[in-house]
Amino acid sequence: MTADEQAPLRAILEQRFALSTSLPATFFEHEAPRIAEACWAMARRFHQGGRLLAFGNGAWATDAQHVSVEFVHPVIVGKRALPALALTNDSATLSGLMAGGRPEMPFSEQLRVLARPSDIALGFSPDGRCANVQAALEQARRMGLLTLAMLGGDGGLITTETVDYRFVVASDDPFIVQEIHETLYHVLWELVHVFFEHEGLLQ
């Protein structure tokens, strides 16, 4: 490959590396206080017997699974396991609920049946325009769950009135959005455990 042929590839790589370093720094600097508040609220729910229920579509379904296994099976030795479930795990239930002709409802129906007011609902959407994620978060809010949304773009239809904590990665690049979401839920996991190490803060 000639130098002229390499130039466009180099430009793409440089642009992606720049976004992957600058945007996370800006996001976490801006959101740090609210991230800390969300972690405290999550830790309190877990302390009171609540569970984390996570959901999303496509690649974000795997993020729901990833964050749930982090809580149930901590990779750091000595950290306590906390109850969590990805609503995307059960393909039979999902497809059965969708077959009723309301494809926006499967997550909200699962929450209606499975969730308790002490639980935590965490929804993922790359642009805030996933109707099934929006419906589930609204259902969770009505039921009294703590609600969190990890979004991209401008946050779309999932507004601050929809959820307790709304974290928006201001990018239309799904790869960058997902990278920051992954870092964010690892931070949530870690800070929840920090609060558990100081349980007097959770009373």
Terminus-to-terminus distance: 63 Å
Under CATH, the topology can be stated as: Rossmann fold
Content-based structural category: alpha/beta
Number of domains: 1
The CATH architecture category equals 3-Layer(aba) Sandwich
Name the CATH superfamily classification. Glucose-6-phosphate isomerase like protein, domain 1
The overall pLDDT average reads 91
Per CATH, the class reads Alpha Beta
Strand % is: 5-15%
- DSSP helical segment count: 6
Helix content: 55-70%
| Main sheet attributes: strand count, strand direction, barrel closure | 5 strands, parallel
Given as residue ranges, the uncertain stretches (5+ residues, pLDDT < 50) are none
Whole-angstrom Rg:
18 Å
What's the arrangement of strands in the largest beta sheet?
Answer: 2-1-3-4-5
The rough form would be described as globular
Q: How would you describe the overall organization of this protein?
A:
The radius of gyration is 18 Å and the shape is globular. The mean pLDDT is 91. Helix 2 (59-72) links the parallel strand 1 (52-55) and strand 2 (84-86). The protein has 203 residues and is of the alpha/beta class. Helix content is 55%, strand content 12%. The protein has a 5-stranded parallel β-sheet with strand order 2-1-3-4-5, sandwiched between helices. The chain has a single domain (3-201), classed as 3-Layer(aba) Sandwich (Rossmann fold).
